[in-house]
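Chapter review: from sequence to fold.
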Amino acid sequence: MSTRGVIYVHSSPSAVCPHVEWAISGVLDARVVLDWTAQEAAPGSARAEVSWAGPVGTAARVATALRAWGMVRFEVTEDPSPGTDGERFSHVPGLGLWHGRTSANGDIVLGEDQVRAALAGATTRESLTRRMDDLLGTRWDDALEEFRFAGEGVAPARLHQVG
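The C-alpha cell string follows.
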C-alpha cells in the first residue's frame, strides 16, 4: 500500500547536510538532493523540506535513518491510508525521537492502553499532565516551534520512492 508524507529538516549543521541527503536517499532508493536554505533560528545551520510518496512505513524508516545524526532537528510525517493510521516522528537534540499516531486532520491520536497506563501511573495531577504532554509530544513541539516558523513560506520539493 502506498502513502505519502513530508520530511522537514528544521536544522542541520551545514557539514551534515550531505549525510542527511544520503540517509534519505538510502531509504527512498533514489538520489535525493534537497534545496537547503539558511535556518535563521540557528545560525550556521540549514533547513529543507521535501514531500515523499512510497510504501506505508517509509516515515519510520526515514526517521530511523535521520536519528543517526543526533544534532539534526527534524520531523517526518506519513499520511493515513486505508487501514493504517498516519504518523509523525519528531527529533530534537537532547530530547531524542518522539513518535505519535495521527488522525486524518493531523491530530495526535492516543490509544486506549496509553491513556489507561498514564492514568494508572499518575500519583498527582501534575504527573498525569506531564505524562499526557509526553504522549502528545508537547516538549518536542515546543522545542521545534521557532524552527518551524523560520521555515514558513518555503514550498517542499516532491520525491517518489523507487520500487
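Two observations follow directly from the output. DSSP finds five helices and eight strands in the chain. The chain has a mean pLDDT of 91.
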